[in-house]
Amino acid sequence: MAENREFFTRRLHSLLGVVPIGLFMVQHLIINHFAVYGEESFNKAAGFMANLPFVLVLEIFVIYLPILFHAILGVYIVFVAKNNVRRFGFVRNWLFYLQRITGIVTLVFIAWHVFETRVQVALGNAEVNYSLMEGILDNPVMFWFYVIGVLSAVFHFANGLWGFFVSWGIAQSPRSQKIVTYATLLVFLVVSYIGIRTLITFAYGV
Amino acid sequence: MAEQKTVTFIITRQDSPDSAPYKQSFNVPYRKNMNVISGLMEIRKNPVTADGEKTTPIAWDMSCLEEVCGACSMVINGVPRQSCAALVDELEHPIRLEPMSTFPVVRDLVIDRERMFDALKQVKAWIPIDGTYDLGPGPRMPEKKRQWAYELSKCMTCGVCLEACPNVNDKSNFIGPAAISQARLFNSHPTGEMNAAERIAGLMEDGGLVGCGNAQNCVQVCPKGIPLTTSIAAMNRAATVQSFKNFFGSDNAH
């Protein structure tokens, strides 16, 4: 493997984006959706997640290290592309471009989001509960920042899932690639709804 | 007598590989059924710019003049394509000609496509049949498969797919779609498949398959309609299987 480092790291990058990062994100948004059923219901679910056994180990190996690897290599991948959507305005080329833009936006969003929530909790400045998120999202600027951040992350996941199917050689024929495109579009719409619906509850209480 | 119709060409020129590019305009007399190359030949006959200034003839590459050699690729009105197959009557005027930007310019519209030939070497895009004795006729190829493989064999290394690919540039070492599809062609040949693992190994080297970001411009612009993205996905699958064989071990890893 040592002689094919680029092959290994790029395939690992593709895999980590789906498992565990993508799965974690979907799970995270679904757990957060408990907010829609009321403050108590959210606090119960968030409390359960925050008090999982070995939570710090789980966080490090399922979340922090994979995201760190994916982000660092991802920024490099963004850097080596020379986008040309103005010359070649094909749909896939736009999605390629958007994948890179949403990657950077998501990176900024996640850094901010983790600092504001997980880091503050670790420092003892905050507690994981409904009112923490309510306090953040009460501010319309933060609300829209979160909307953009969530949409970016979900787009990056859904389109990256398509890329995973192609890069690993699962979807080979043009027809299968097209059907995977529609399937991942559905993933984008459904997961976006779950995420945005939660944000609306935190911000406006509805 | 009616005034002679002319065609205007705006050409991006460059005197040497390291000098700065500049633009020159030329008016050439119109003839019926002209292609871009016949326009360039007119300029060569009388290398005078639209401003009446005498200049050097334009340098460009060409060979077959029937869109099978790939030598005359250039960017015509923003689109990379073969200048032999670009008919003046079907183009927007004035006609803008530029060298393909992905490749180093040798002079004017002449570019150096050596990186494509290096890529073919990396993936061993040939069938080794030399031996110290007569190896015999080799296995037969089913007709159906031959017809299918013929489509892949139309690649003329013209460079248009590399020009369109956002991941082929001076910051990346990606070999581009053409060589990946050629590896698929030779891996599907009954004699060629005896060396399939060697070609996949070439694709797994740095700058290989994983440089693809699935922008899929290549398949849209290929003048020969080669299913390049299908080839890339097919080789992605082959490389996935090969990497598992390499790591976990297999008697079929070759």
Written overview of the protein:
The complex is a heterodimer of chains A (206) and B (254). By secondary structure, chain A is an all-alpha fold. Chain A has a single domain (2-204), classed as 3 helical TM bundles of succinate and fumarate reductases (Up-down Bundle). Helix content of chain A is 80%, strand content 0%. Chain A has seven helices and no strands. Chain A has helices spanning 5-32, 39-50, 55-80, 91-122, 130-137, 140-167, 174-204. In chain A, α1 (5-32) crosses α6 (140-167), α3 (55-80) runs antiparallel to α4 (91-122) and α4 crosses α6. Chain A is globular. In chain A, 31% of the residues are buried. The mean pLDDT of chain A is 96. Chain B has 254 residues and is an alpha+beta fold. Chain B folds into two domains: 6-111, Ubiquitin-like (UB roll), CATH 3.10.20.30; 114-248, Orthogonal Bundle (Fumarate Reductase Iron-sulfur Protein, Chain B, domain 2), CATH 1.10.1060.10. Chain B is built from eight helices and seven strands. Chain B has helices at residues 36-45, 114-122, 143-153, 160-164, 177-188, 196-204, 217-221, 228-248; strands at 6-13, 22-29, 73-76, 79-82, 95-98, 105-107, 110-111. Chain B has a five-stranded mixed β-sheet with strand order 2-1-5-3-4. The longest helix of chain B has 21 residues, at 228-248.
Tally of domains of chain B: 2
What does the overall shape of chain A look like? Answer: globular
Greatest interface: A-B, 36 and 38 residues
* First-to-last CA distance of chain B: 75 Å
Please tell me the overall pLDDT of chain A: 96
In percent terms, what proportion of residues of chain A is strand?
A: under 5%
Low-confidence runs of chain B: none
The CATH class name of the largest domain in chain B reads: Mainly Alpha
Task: Write the topology of this structure.
The complex is a heterodimer of chains A (206) and B (254).
Chain A: H1 5-32, H2 39-50, H3 55-80, H4 91-122, H5 130-137, H6 140-167, H7 174-204
Helix pairs in contact in A: 1-3, 1-6, 1-7, 3-4, 4-6, 6-7
Chain B: E1 6-13, E2 22-29, H1 36-45, E3 73-76, E4 79-82, E5 95-98, E6 105-107, E7 110-111, H2 114-122, H3 143-153, H4 160-164, H5 177-188, H6 196-204, H7 217-221, H8 228-248
Parallel strand pairs in B: 1-5
Antiparallel strand pairs in B: 1-2, 3-4, 3-5, 6-7
Helix pairs in contact in B: 2-5, 3-5, 5-6, 5-8, 6-8
